[in-house]
Specification:
This protein is an alpha+beta fold. It contains 15 helices and 16 strands. The longest helix is centred in the C-terminal third of the chain and has 33 residues. It binds histidyl-adenosine monophosphate. The site of histidyl-adenosine monophosphate has 26 residues, from β6, β10, β11 and α11.
Length: 449
């Protein structure tokens, strides 16, 4: 019986798996340039970690968590996001001691949310993100946004809108909550049951409601902007000014409140501006949090961070860069063996070529030359190496270019590694100039049409 993957999950293999690891590598390099170190925390945490950080009445905690009792009766949850676990780890391991300041970590891994699967929305998805704590300055907030932008640039996805807002300090949010209560007082009885619950617990979360009938009234609600202190406004302006001076534009979005309770001050989200791609929602988002570390039992350090949704980025990357996916997982050389003796010699040859940095495959099961060549062509090997009796007797290696069909004998001597390298260069030159020509032709024909 065939067992299907769990709804909302997806397997990663071949090109996709490489895109994920390449993106992770590019982002890690950028993060390390800003002084960040990698941290890896468990996928399962105690449920109350998320209730306490994301907020008891957030959609994530009330509807979307994969929570279960383990055999010891403990309530555990598959992490729906990574900030809470990273901060818990900073507290558990006392990573906040003086010499470690500022605390700067980047992370990558799977998260789980029980949401309705749709474009760019999965039940298991991957986040890459950063958290920095212990420095409270608009420069630090701006630097985190600049770094996220540089990461997008490093994978050629920087045609984005950066939406920014401030959720202000405690006083601003208290006054805003009261204003929302007053505003929704008349209409709350006609709104969805979730909103009625949110009204009692935390009216700010009403703004996350996605029920279409509730949206018109929510869209006219007061925004936080009118409740921000002069200091909050100055901080937000300064962050925007620093970014602008460094070539990064931001757009104020007064309705941006984010779906997690821990934010205070500056919040932001990245939105794709590529017309050819579907609307994924936010590619990533984050913000400043003043109290999260102390609420989890650590010192009173403020922090700021963000996370990218990797599925959304990779899907966008494949649409935007479809003509230039320089992903190559095919064999450089496939060595054919027609008898056991050749298998034995070619086994050693394959290991030597791999040591020189070539991707090499070979057959262990004996088949006819015709069948082996057919197979090598099917798996798109770039070159085939034939080391039959004649070749061994003449001390040469016969190499067939699987694209052109041309085959030549190469003397086995100290020049051979260089010759093989040249063959690879030839392959890449012809392969990618073909691709480029094709895409140029495509552009031309689009222009004509
Ligand atoms: P978030 O906005 O909940 O923030 O998630 C960050 C990103 O994860 C989203 O912008 C989106 O790209 C991706 N994402 C969220 N849910 C899904 C899903 N179901 N399927 C696919 N992608 C998804 C956080 O998680 C915060 N921890 C970010 C942060 C870090 N704030 C401060 N530090």
């Amino acid at each position: 019986m065939e067992i299907n993957p769990v709804k909302g999950t997806h397997d990663l293999y071949l090109e996709d798996a490489m895109l994920y690891s390449d993106t992770y590598r590019a982002f890690s390099i950028t993060a390390s340039m800003y002084g960040y170190h990698e941290i890896e925390t468990p996928i399962i945490e105690h449920t109350n970690l998320f209730a306490r950080s994301a907020g008891e009445d957030s959609d994530i905690v009330t509807k979307e968590m994969y929570t279960f009792l383990d055999k010891g009766g403990r309530s555990l949850t598959l992490r729906p996001e990574m900030t809470a676990g990273v901060l818990r780890s900073i507290v558990s391991n006392k990573l906040y001691v003086e010499k470690e300041m500022p605390i700067r970590y980047f992370y990558y891994g799977p998260c789980f949310r029980y949401e309705r699967p749709q474009v760019g929305r999965y039940r298991e998805f991957h986040q890459f993100g950063v958290e920095t704590l212990g420095v409270n300055s608009p420069y630090n907030d701006a630097e985190v946004i600049l770094m996220a932008y540089e990461m997008l640039k490093s994978v050629k996805l920087n045609n984005v809108k950066i939406k920014i807002n401030s959720l202000g300090g405690e006083e601003a949010r208290k006054n805003y909550r009261e204003a929302l209560k007053e505003y929704f007082k008349e209409s709350i009885a006609n709104m969805c049951l979730d909103c009625q619950r949110r009204y009692e617990m935390n009216p700010l979360r009403i703004l996350d409601c996605k029920v279409p009938e509730d949206r018109p009234i929510i869209d006219k609600a007061p925004t936080i902007t009118d409740f921000l202190s002069e200091e909050d406004k100055k901080h937000l302006d300064k962050v925007r000014e620093i970014l602008e001076d460094n070539g990064v534009d931001t757009v104020i979005d007064t309705s941006l409140v984010r779906g997690l309770d821990y934010y205070t001050g500056v919040v932001f989200e990245f939105e794709s501006m590529y017309e050819e791609a579907p609307d994924y929602g936010a590619l990533g988002g984050g913000g400043h949090y003043a109290k999260l570390l102390s609420e989890l039992g650590g010192p009173d350090f403020e922090g700021v961070g963000f996370s990218f949704g990797m599925e959304r980025l990779i899907s966008l990357y494949k649409i935007v860069n479809k003509d230039n996916l320089l992903i190559d997982s095919t064999y450089d050389f496939y060595i054919l063996s027609l008898d056991e003796e050749q298998v034995d010699a070619n086994f050693t040859l394959a290991a030597a070529l791999r040591r020189q940095g070539f991707r090499v495959g070979l057959n262990y099961e004996l088949k006819s030359m015709k069948a082996l060549l057919k197979y090598a062509s099917r798996i798109e090997a770039k070159y085939v190496i034939i080391m039959g009796e004649d070749e061994i007797a003449n001390n040469v290696m016969r190499i067939k270019n699987m694209g052109s069909g041309e085959q030549l004998d190469y003397a086995i001597n100290e020049d051979l590694p260089m010759k093989l390298q040249e063959l690879m260069e030839e392959y890449y030159e012809s392969h990618y100039s073909d691709k480029k020509e094709n895409s140029e032709e495509e552009i031309e024909s689009k222009e004509i049409n």
